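Researcher: Next entry in the queue.
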Amino acid sequence: PGMALNLPAPTLADAQTTAALAFRMMPVQQTGSFASTPTLPWTRPLDDARTKPGACTTNWDALRTSLAATRVADGNRADVVSYGLLPTGMPVNVTGCGVGGLGSARWAAP
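Model: Structure for this entry, 110 residues:
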């Protein structure tokens, strides 16, 4: 389908900066404890069409499946929210997707 993407991964510091928004929007612990897992290689753009109104796209669903496998490999802890932070230049149609303590969105530099 399209050209493969090769974008630099966001850093742990980028995740810490981005978390401030999550702390304002969600009822979560207000002091973060951050860790990063190995970078998940992902080359598919996320700008494909939604599967239905309000749903994620096929490529977002595939990314969530890959992120879920990473979470399982990391211990699948119920007390941890796993979040995939995408590079700023990642083409997206949906700004982010998530379910059940697992989500992902594009990093937005302050």
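Model: The chain has two helices and three strands.
Researcher: Noted, moving on.
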